[in-house]
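# step 3/5: fold
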Amino acid sequence: KLSGYAQVRYQYFTDTLVSNGFDVRRARVTLAGSPFKNFDYKLQADFAPTTRVMDVTAAYTFNTYIKIVAGQQKIPFSLENLISSPLMESINRSQVVEALVSRSRDVISTQGAVVGNNNGRDIGALLTGVIKTQGENARPLVEYSGGLFSGNGINKADNNRELDFSGRVIAYPIKQISSGGSYYNGSATYGKDVSKPKNRDRFGFEVYYNSPRITVKSEF
């Protein structure tokens, strides 16, 4: 399956030294498929503002409870990070997510020789699955994701000997509500002192209510 989308924005700045204008925020093309039973792959590239490889994954699904995904992918941290860009309420993500979820304002994006937005992604291996109710109208009860990642962002090799862990568990107490938390434990080399890696640990909590008439999302 070949798919894609583009998002164009206009920015107006109160600072007169910065120019207003249009730009292409995202322009992505995705190739995904399932050539064999229980096996699927995904390739995604972004062409704005520069050409970059975003996702390169291969996945094998054992059953509903266990799926293994290997490659460059989104880390399982934060509700907003995992929502696809065309499905968000605004064209940009919140500042706290940009700063703490391997995005434009994270320390691994703003420090060092290679500067750039990692778009909430990293290179590693992920184990994920869903526990559902029984019966004809089955719905999810618990969803989990956990994996080991290089901790250095997209399209870059690891710059230390440590692997980072990221995990997320979400519970669905009733049909319209989900709540849970995320945890990230890792280290990264950044800043003026690059003699040894520094801790880059984070945690988060989230609540999501979704009904036909109203949607409420919140995370800390």
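# step 4/5: annotate
The first helix runs from residue 79 to 82.
# step 5/5: archive (pending)
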